[in-house]
Specification:
Layout lengths: L1 H33 L4 E2 L3 E3 L7 E6 L2 E4 L7 H4 L4 H4 L2 H6 L8 E5 L7 H4 L7 E6 L2 H14 L4 E5 L12 E7 L8 H11 E13 L12 E2 L1 H9 L4 E6 L5 E7 L6
Length: about 260
């Protein structure tokens, strides 16, 4: 009986060793393949072998995620969002003034837009998106609810189309990681900020593997800081009071100082 058990364990050990060898070889091959840059334009790198969640385009070492289309509008408005993500806590921490001009970048269905607009009665919210279908939803609510301080802007892939030096706060909620042209978009946002204006990003924390969001739709604090610094923004604060997301605050230098 003992000999049979020993033989069985030896067989199991051999199988496990073979599996570990295959895994090691596969991992090595994957690492080699994904390091092959097939093309580069000086800012972005392009790879033919890449994560299936991404578009094969890399910026400062990060692969850009695929965009969630307007077909996912229902997910943005899901009831569970209020307790899973605590969006009202995020809004409270924006420290808004009644006169603020807020740009909601990647506004989607207007989930944040319409929660912010009552807090800036003497200001307004610029709801910016590249999908006209999303802006149609926002305009419909504007009309139905007679909301007068929400303005929609159809942006381009590489240009948010914010009027220069017009915005106090630019808010990006779980959207930056999908920008196909992150550098150009952020330069446009920086141009649209008033001197001393703030950029606030909410991104699912990639440091926490227990957050059940696809990998490329999460970002680390370190990576966000690197990419914001590249366009001249100055890090102010990182707050992790939300259940799943970083709350990162950056500032445009006040050139008047």
């Amino acid at each position: 009986m003992t000999k049979n058990i020993i033989k069985f364990l030896q067989k199991v050990g051999s199988i496990l060793s073979l599996l570990l060898l295959i895994l090691a070889l596969t991992s090595t091959s994957w690492a080699i393949n994904t390091d092959i840059v097939t093309n580069s334009d000086g800012i972005y790198q392009y790879r033919t072998i890449h994560n299936s969640e991404g578009i094969g385009k890399f910026y400062l070492g990060r692969e850009i995620a695929k965009v969630m289309g307007h077909e996912g509008a229902g997910w943005l408005e899901r009831d569970s969002r209020s307790y899973q993500e605590k969006p009202q806590n995020a809004i409270n921490n924006l420290e808004l003034k009644s006169t603020d001009i807020v740009a909601d970048i990647g506004a989607g269905t207007g989930y944040f837009t319409f929660r912010i607009s009552p807090l800036v009665p003497e200001g307004k919210v610029l709801a910016i998106d590249i999908q006209p279908e999303m802006l149609e939803l926002i305009n419909f609510v504007n009309h139905e609810e007679n909301i007068t301080n929400v303005e929609t802007i159809l942006g381009d892939l590489d240009n948010p189309k914010i009027p220069p030096s017009s915005v106090d706060i630019a808010l990006l909620v779980d959207t930056y990681h999908e920008f196909e042209y992150p550098r150009e978009m952020m330069l446009g946002i920086v141009e649209g900020l008033k001197p001393g204006g703030r950029v606030v990003l909410l991104e699912y924390r990639s440091e926490n593997p227990m957050i059940m969001i696809k990998g490329l739709h999460k970002m680390s604090e370190k990576q966000v800081k690197k990419e914001m610094e590249a366009v001249g923004l100055v890090w102010q604060d990182t707050r992790d009071f939300l259940p799943q997301q970083h709350f990162l605050v950056f500032k445009k230098p006040d050139i008047s100082l």
